[in-house]
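queue> pop job 88
queue> type: inverse folding (structure -> sequence)
queue> payload:
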């Protein structure tokens, strides 16, 4: 008897992590299931059969995506043809909506049930996509509670499953314990810098972060910086920015990995906008958020976005609770002033910690198990 086949596509590392956890949760109920499509090293380590390398889809920014569009479109056509031949019992698109929703539309119209895991940010921009989503998706799985009402109004079947990071970071050591573990001064001023995880982000952000660190050091004698990196290449880009500015005198410790540890040990985190802002909130750390993209990408983005916040903690709170500095406002002077203000305002840091604790409690739902429970009923009606 042929094993039950589930198609999946994850287009970037965060999706690879979600896919890995979901495969594990589904295998508890479907021990002989076969998973195939596009995924990264974590998914393949769980027995996933990758047809195309995930790196082909991990492209950021409007201009950058346009440059790679022909190749990406070709991969989607070939993958769709494969799935239409193999007829999986279910397809799960994990994030990467620009790639996955078009694929889901094609598969669902051919009778294959489809799940999209991680609701696209239609609440922030391009709300009109909801009409395509309604046709493409048999069930939407969302990570944030406020998203359910959006999809219910559009008559898209939806399940709130919580955020996996809230489960993962729920029992993470506090600041005092982490400083002891990392052998850092218990009472010192510590700022963690997170200039991004992708090479393209580091190329844009490294110089800004180094210049900001210099200004913070001028205002806060003895301040120590922690800078975790995901790869040797991203570290080399940052070190080149240090060299260009002759900033070798900064009290700075660079780390491979251990971003959560570096955040937990800090008084304040200076972070590039993205999932890391949510991680900092779940670790209950005060933060300053910044981001820059190519000027043309920023111009298009501003024309499409109709939402006042970028940082996820602000989105979840429904108000500005952490400072955001984007594009022209992302200057060393603005960022250093905001970080310094938080360093010397323990009352504000305590208020943020309490706010983030409530946020984390709401997001903690054992997401992989909840996602699997929402998906399994679709297999009952799927064609054999």
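queue> result:
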């Amino acid at each position: 008897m042929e094993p039950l086949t589930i198609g999946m596509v994850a287009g970037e590392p965060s999706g690879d992590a979600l896919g890995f956890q979901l495969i594990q949760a589904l295998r508890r109920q479907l021990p002989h299931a076969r998973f195939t499509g596009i995924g990264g090293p974590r998914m393949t380590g769980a027995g996933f059969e990758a047809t195309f390398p995930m790196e082909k889809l991990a492209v950021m920014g409007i201009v950058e995506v346009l440059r790679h569009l022909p190749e990406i479109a070709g991969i989607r056509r070939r993958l769709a043809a494969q799935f239409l031949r193999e007829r999986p019992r279910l397809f799960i698109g994990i994030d990467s909506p620009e790639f996955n929703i078009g694929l889901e539309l094609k598969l669902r119209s051919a009778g294959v049930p489809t799940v999209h895991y991680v609701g696209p940010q239609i609440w922030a921009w391009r709300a009109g996509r909801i009409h395509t989503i309604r046709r493409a998706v048999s069930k939407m799985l969302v990570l944030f509670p406020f998203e359910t009402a959006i999809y219910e109004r559009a008559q898209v079947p939806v399940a709130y499953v919580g955020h996996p990071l809230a489960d993962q970071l729920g029992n993470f050591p506090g600041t005092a314990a982490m400083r002891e573990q990392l052998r850092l001064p218990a009472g010192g001023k510590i700022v963690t810098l997170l200039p991004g995880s992708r090479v393209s982000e580091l190329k844009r952000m490294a110089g800004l972060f180094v210049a900001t660190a210099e200004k913070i050091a001028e205002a806060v004698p003895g301040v120590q910086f922690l800078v975790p990196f995901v790869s040797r290449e991203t570290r080399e880009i940052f070190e080149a920015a240090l060299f260009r500015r002759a900033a070798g005198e900064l009290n700075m410790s660079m780390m491979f990995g251990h971003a959560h540890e570096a955040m937990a040990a800090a008084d304040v985190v200076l972070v590039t906008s993205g999932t890391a802002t949510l991680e900092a909130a779940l670790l209950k750390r005060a933060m300053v958020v910044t981001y820059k993209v190519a000027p043309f990408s920023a111009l298009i983005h501003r024309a499409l976005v109709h939402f006042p916040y970028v940082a996820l903690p602000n989105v979840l709170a429904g108000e500005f609770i952490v400072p955001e500095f984007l594009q022209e406002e992302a200057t060393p002077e603005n960022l250093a002033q905001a970080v310094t203000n938080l360093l010397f305002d323990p009352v504000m840091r305590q208020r943020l910690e309490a706010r983030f604790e409530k946020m984390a409690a709401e997001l903690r739902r054992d997401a992989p198990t909840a996602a699997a429970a929402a998906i399994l009923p679709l297999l009952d009606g799927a064609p054999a």
